[in-house]
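Hi Y.,

Following your request, here is the sequence exactly as I used it, all 300 residues.
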Amino acid sequence: MSKSISLLSALLCTFIWGTTFIAQDTGMDNIGPFTFNAVRFFVGFLAILPLVFLFETKKYSFEFKKDKKLLLRLTIIIGFSLFFGSALQQVALLYTDVANAAFFTIFYVPLVPIIVFLFRKKKIHWSVWPSVCLCLIGGYLLTNFFDATVRLGDSLVILGALFWSFHIIYTDIFIKKFNLPLTLGAAQTMIVALLSFVVGLIYEEFILINIFKEILPILYAGVLSGGFAFVLQIYAQKNISPAPAAIIFSLEGVFATIAAWIILSQILEINNILGCIFILCGVLISQLVPLINQKKQNQT
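Below is the corresponding structure, written out as tokens. Let me know if you'd prefer a different format.
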């Protein structure tokens, strides 16, 4: 039951992330990327904060006794990883198109199992590797990348994918040690908001009337993506290890494509449909093959 809830949380989180790509792209018509992220993640923080007071403050006396220094260190690492990942992705959208950004973002899918294998010395189930290949092929087909021009902004997205990988891996470490998903969600969004605000003050102008012009994309990206989606990610990773979780999160490309088809009336071509199928197959293999193997082992 807990595994099913985690899978549902991962899918809902991925759906929100995928549809937020449109809000991220359209939300910078009148404001800069760091202004957008500062307001977006502060809105996300405000959305999560009441839930923290309602459900988690009573746990603090117990959870903080475990290892307060480790809790603080992991929170900072996760917050900074989220800041760099989201900032690089947001800035990159100024220099590249959504197709390239979406394709290069899913590079965290192969990066997560590689980092876990090399640095945490954890064995990776063999099904992860074909799943990773299917997701990358699916991402390539999904985004019409072969019709796009490689731009300087693409390197920013690739670098951002590295930070998304760290975010997934360290979130897994945090949630296995501390039962404070809402607190982590609030803390990381506040860190990103503060860092984005500082950078925005240096390089951009905070003009209130321009911010209100982008209020709908900000609210969607803030409340749903910047707030609840990252909390859903934390709940999802309670019962899903980092490598399979990264594969499930790659479905954001599928949801982004479907959202663009419905909202922006973009035509789905045969390669887009094939891309969706490849990624779905990758996700199914990563989840079903280990379960089938485990069932066989229990029967013997």
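The mean pLDDT is 83.

Thanks again,
Q.
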